[in-house]
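Inverse folding, one chain.
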């Protein structure tokens, strides 16, 4: 597992963990993304690198990362379906660049749902598909296999969202999976490090509270705003967006 070596302004680096007594507050999601991008410059201009944002809050952060690196950007949408064994046992449906990936523990509903559970799952999957279409429009899918995937979110609290995304991405066989976030709870570090190939984080403040507390402006975009953000991609990155 790699660790970051550069020190963002206002943060202190100690044995590979960025920590603060009074954590610097990010102005907003996009400014946090610009700071985060500076820790990922080893991927600058790489034809083998793509950036995937966890929608919704990860998209403004990832947009800045993708534009700085000259890398194509797409979205991951997650729909939690069931928690059969309580917290931490969530079964999720994940839409990765337009491809639906469902946790193996869930049986997909039949073409004509019969039970209340099948109706619930069918409705949830349809909702996820509609959200994905609104976010991505008609954009062609990115090729994930054999790529360096930089998976971006606005922060990590428990790590459950990142783990669901990582599980889905692993089924698509990327060559390397890097999780990149501006801020995270220290308690989440081990579980995310074990699941990813690399973890880049600007700050691990304790106590943590909620991700939104570390942003002066924590406005999270809706699906239509996300689509507009994807249209802001730099021309170089946009030219490499299609898997074809």
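Residues assigned per position:
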């Amino acid at each position: 597992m790699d660790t970051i070596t550069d020190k963002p302004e206002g943060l202190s680096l100690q044995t590979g963990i960025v920590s603060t007594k009074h954590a610097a507050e990010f102005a907003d999601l996009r400014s946090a993304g610009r700071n985060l991008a500076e820790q990922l410059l080893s991927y600058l201009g790489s034809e083998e690198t793509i950036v995937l944002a966890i929608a919704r809050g990860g998209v403004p952060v990832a947009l800045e990362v993708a534009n700085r690196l000259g890398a194509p950007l797409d979205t991951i949408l997650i729909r939690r379906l069931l928690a059969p064994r309580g917290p931490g046992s969530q079964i999720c449906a994940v839409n990765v660049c337009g491809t639906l990936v469902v946790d193996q523990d869930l049986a997909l509903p039949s073409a004509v749902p019969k039970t209340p559970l099948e109706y619930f799952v069918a409705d949830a999957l349809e909702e996820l598909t509609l959200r994905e279409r609104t976010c991505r429009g008609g954009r062609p899918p990115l090729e994930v296999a054999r790529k360096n995937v930089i998976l971006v979110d606005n922060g990590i609290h428990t790590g459950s969202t990142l783990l669901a995304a990582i599980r889905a991405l692993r089924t698509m066989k990327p060559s390397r999976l890097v999780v990149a976030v501006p801020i995270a709870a220290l308690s989440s570090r081990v579980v995310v490090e074990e699941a990813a190939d690399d973890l880049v984080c600007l700050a691990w403040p304790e106590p943590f509270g909620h991700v939104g507390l570390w942003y002066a402006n924590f406005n999270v975009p809706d699906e239509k705003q996300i689509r507009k953000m994807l249209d802001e991609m730099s021309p170089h990155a946009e030219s490499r967006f299609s898997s074809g």
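Residues 116-136 form the longest helix (21 residues). The longest strand covers residues 73-82.
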